[in-house]
């Protein structure tokens, strides 16, 4: 049922879980950081600077952690990874940041929390994976939750409809990227693929940066610096490394379950940092999204997964 993972000591299990929770707090907060950066920077600048800066940092961290062997790859696979990188970084993140220019960080975070459902549907269409009853029910509940959030309980046309629609488009692109990347991720470690995705993604973003206004970093405000450092260091480097470490110690299906943290951290931080309102419909929608994810993945819950890992460890 679960893939074999490296044995971990009991005290390390708590550290792995803490790292995965922290990872999803960072990702949940990314929308808030983008909104802060947008006070001074444009879409192309935010995305390009984030990944152009993160790429050499990730390579350095990977080599220090795993050695140069972690970057070995068959050259024949590079064109395919370059295409995947364009989907997963320039296209998807440009859509993300564009959506945040027209909607709230709260709506964006909660809409993006639906990514597991978009991946389910993309898997069914692209690689003919079966959609189970639990996944169908979970997806329906999740989409009802997002409907509450987008409409705020009103039948009138939502004021943030454009931004919400672009966020959904970003979700679709992310799902396609994830599904099409399954074959290459089965051939190489996730960290190897991630490095080359960052390399190609950063290179593909250079033209976008060159046609942007190109505000000098010397003119950045303290808030802009804080937002960009957070996006680059914590969301693009630390979070991915912690997640990769977590998937080495726990099955990916279990590590992925910590996505529950993202909507909670995103909504809370949007209220605290940006002053965005939390309505009854926001709370109801958040609950439905989280329950929908649980329903879709209920046969492989966190607790059961960790018990399986511990039983595996004890039997070795």
From TrEMBL:
SUPFAM superfamilies: Multidrug resistance efflux transporter EmrE. It is a multi-pass membrane protein. Keywords: Cell membrane, Membrane, Transmembrane, Transmembrane helix. The chain crosses the membrane at residues 12-34, 46-65, 77-95, 101-125, 137-155, 161-180, 192-211, 223-243, 250-272, 278-294. Residues 17-150, 162-294 form the EamA domain. It is found in: Cell membrane. It holds the Pfam family EamA. Its main location: membrane. The keyword Mitochondrion does not apply. GO terms for cellular component: plasma membrane. InterPro entries: AA-Vitamin_Transporters, EamA_dom, EmrE-like. PANTHER family: INNER MEMBRANE TRANSPORTER (PTHR32322), S-ADENOSYLMETHIONINE_S-ADENOSYLHOMOCYSTEINE TRANSPORTER (PTHR32322:SF18). This is EamA domain-containing protein. It comes from Methanobacterium bryantii. The lineage of its organism: Archaea, Methanobacteriati, Methanobacteriota, Methanomada group, Methanobacteria.
